[in-house]
Design brief:
Blueprint: H1 4-23, E1 72-101, E2 115-148, E3 154-164, E4 167-177, E5 187-189, E6 193-203, H2 205-209, H3 214-222
Parallel strand pairs: 1-5
Antiparallel strand pairs: 1-2, 2-3, 3-4, 4-6
């Protein structure tokens, strides 16, 4: 009975670790943080009843396009890439050599008379390679301006979480936006974003079932064949 208790304890710890792994947020490579609060505006004096009020986020006739930290920009994800590569190489070489000795008169090694010698060599090499990749990512995600660069460009980042049954799906995006490409509705195409980082990840038991175990990854790394 005493020997069984450590086994149950180990199984319980493994179960807790598995539950924690299912609820853990997948790692990300997008710019951090993924959301910030807007900076407070400098208060200015205003007359009661005047059109301009310092408590408003923007004056009445100011451009509504995002350009401050904390503003939001909607990104249309229209990523589509296709790449293919083919290569082949062939090398071949042939060589032959023949020699004969007809007579060795008045010389040593007369036993080599009428000796014929033939040598040949052949070498051939062939190699081929083929690779192809196609990726399509479409959708919409609204990001937050987390930094305004010195030249006026906007560093945006955002995340969208979707809970589906027993797992969560994470859509993340970050990149540098030129305000010139932002439309009046604060929308920009992902193809116009520099240093774009797009991620689609998930967690849950279905995602874990498609992941190689840590022991398999260990042996895959250290095995020489």
């Amino acid at each position: 009975m005493k020997a069984i208790r450590p086994l149950f304890a180990a199984l319980a710890l493994a179960g807790l670790a598995g539950c924690a792994a299912l609820q853990a947020t997948p790692p990300t490579a997008v710019h951090q943080p993924m959301s910030v609060r807007p900076e407070p505006r400098t208060a200015q004096a205003s007359q009661p009843g005047a059109i301009y009020q310092s408590s408003f986020s923007r004056p009445l006739f100011e451009d509504r396009r995002a350009r401050f930290i904390g503003d939001v920009i909607t990104v249309n994800l229209v990523e589509q890439t296709a790449a293919s590569k083919k290569s082949s190489a062939t090398a071949e070489r042939n060589a032959s050599l023949s020699a004969s000795i007809t007579a060795l008169a008045k010389l040593p090694l007369k036993g080599l008379n009428s000796l014929d010698a033939t040598a040949s060599d052949a070498s051939k090499f062939g190699g081929k390679g083929d690779a192809a990749a196609n990726n399509t990512f479409t959708g919409t995600i609204t990001t937050t301006v987390i930094e305004v660069l010195p030249n006026g460009n906007l560093l945006v980042s955002g995340e969208k979480q979707i809970a589906v049954n027993q797992g969560n799906e994470f859509i993340r995006f970050s990149g540098v936006v030129n305000p010139v490409y932002v439309t009046g509705s604060n929308t920009v195409q992902s193809t116009q974003v520099a240093d774009a980082r797009v991620e689609y990840r998930a967690n849950g038991y279905m995602d874990e079932a498609q992941t190689m175990g840590w022991m398999q990854r260990f042996f895959l790394t250290v095995m020489p064949f």
